[in-house]
From TrEMBL:
The keyword Protease applies. It holds the Pfam family Prok-JAB. This is Desampylase. One of its GO terms (biological process) is proteolysis. The lineage of its organism: Archaea, Methanobacteriati, Methanobacteriota, Stenosarchaea group, Halobacteria.
Length: 136
C-alpha cells in the first residue's frame, strides 16, 4: 500500500496538469516500508527524455542530488512518479523496460479521463505489482 499525504497527492496531480502535454516526473520522500510506504513530500524533477510527450527520464545527476535532498531531510526515498497525459492509467511497455529500482513504488498520474487517476505499482525486478493508494 502507498499512503500519500493530501499535499503530495495535490502536488503530483497539479504537476501533471501544468506539465501537460508532456510527461512530468519526480521523486517521493517519506517512510519506506516493504508492505506499506508513506509519502509526505514530493520533489519535482525535469523530464530529460528525448520524447517527453510519450516517455520520461530523470537525469541521473539530478536524480541522485534529489535523493540526497530527501535523505538530508530525514526521509526515505519511497519511489518515483510520472504522468501519462494521454493515458494509459497503468505502466506502459516503456515504463516496464526502464524500471530499475526494485522494491520501490512507481506512481502514475493519468489525465486521460474526466478526473485524474493516481495509481501505484511496486517494481519486483521482473514486473509491476499494483498497490492500493490511500490519501490521508
Amino acid at each position: 500500500m502507498l499512503v500519500l499525504s493530501r499535499g503530495v497527492y495535490d502536488d503530483v496531480v497539479e504537476h501533471a496538469r501544468t506539465g501537460s502535454p508532456e510527461e512530468v516526473c519526480g521523486i517521493l520522500g517519506g517512510e519506506f516500508g516493504a508492505d506499506e510506504s508513506h509519502a509526505g513530500a514530493s520533489y519535482r524533477t525535469d523530464n530529460a527524455a528525448d520524447a517527453p510527450r510519450t516517455e520520461y527520464a530523470i537525469d541521473p545527476e539530478e536524480q541522485f542530488a534529489v535523493m540526497d535532498d530527501v535523505e538530508d531531510a530525514g526521509r526515505d526515498v519511497v519511489g518515483f512518479y510520472h504522468s501519462h497525459p494521454q493515458g494509459p492509467p497503468r505502466p506502459s511497455q516503456t515504463d516496464r523496460a526502464r524500471a530499475t529500482w526494485e522494491g520501490y513504488t512507481y506512481v502514475i498520474v493519468s489525465l486521460d479521463g474526466a478526473h485524474p487517476y493516481v495509481g501505484a505499482w511496486r517494481w519486483t525486478g521482473d514486473a509491476f505489482s499494483q498497490e492500493v493508494v490511500a490519501v490521508r
